[in-house]
Amino acid sequence: MQMAPTVYAAASHCTPQQSRDGEMRIICQVDHRTYTRPHNRSVILTVQAPSQPLYNAVTLIAVTSAISLLMVTSVIGGTLLLYMYFCKAPPSVSEISQSGIIYAQVPSELKCTIQGARQREIRVKWFKLRSGADSVVESESIPLMVSEDLSEEACLHSDGKHHTSVLTVCLTVTEDLNKYRCIVLCRGKTFNRETTVRVKVEPSFLQISSIPQIPKVERLLILCCRVENFYPQDINLEWSRNDWGRGPHCHTLWTIL
């Protein structure tokens, strides 16, 4: 038995490369001994390149670095702020200052200066302290001190670095030796300052009289120096004599306290 002749089939593959969008024509040429000339077959392909990412690698690295730097800066800044808030040095609070002499019925200022804090962090309160001898309840060992809140009468002056709380008082002699307290509240801490006020009244009447009014030779002469309306009661009266015919110096005769 004779077998039928075998026919053959062949296939060829190619991988075209295209770097940009557009149409591409592919030609396949077939050459066989039975052909008087090669046969060509062609096909037109529409090539679409893959979409490019919005950001390239360099841009992505730059954005990532910027975000990382911003986060590190935020963490460091927050840490510094917390450290400055909780660990900063406490403010400086001065002693209460007052005029050298406080006269009765004359307005005078009591001042307390704060440094090292912002104005919004500060709260200042003023109190006048007086003995509670007239109170019903008293301590057996320590006199009871009664405080009067004068905070509403005080004002705060600030130049950005120095904050001065000023309390204006107009006192009488009955308020001599009264104590005043300034309380400064700042960042959860309390600072107390106290001062004692001495009230004075300048003598308003000074007169010298003599008995008799017209001195006479070899007659007893009594001189009287009268001073009124002063406070406190300690006073020094000093007499001196100026003998114009014997020299320019004054000689102290006696002193009365």
TrEMBL record:
<feature type="transmembrane region" description="Helical">
    <location>
        <begin position="60"/>
        <end position="86"/>
    </location>
</feature>
<feature type="domain" description="Ig-like">
    <location>
        <begin position="203"/>
        <end position="257"/>
    </location>
</feature>
<keyword id="KW-0812">Transmembrane</keyword>
<dbReference type="InterPro" id="IPR007110">
    <property type="entry name" value="Ig-like_dom"/>
</dbReference>
<keyword id="KW-0472">Membrane</keyword>
<dbReference type="InterPro" id="IPR013783">
    <property type="entry name" value="Ig-like_fold"/>
</dbReference>
<protein>
    <submittedName>
        <fullName>Uncharacterized protein LOC108877457</fullName>
    </submittedName>
</protein>
<keyword id="KW-1133">Transmembrane helix</keyword>
<feature type="domain" description="Ig-like">
    <location>
        <begin position="91"/>
        <end position="198"/>
    </location>
</feature>
<dbReference type="InterPro" id="IPR036179">
    <property type="entry name" value="Ig-like_dom_sf"/>
</dbReference>
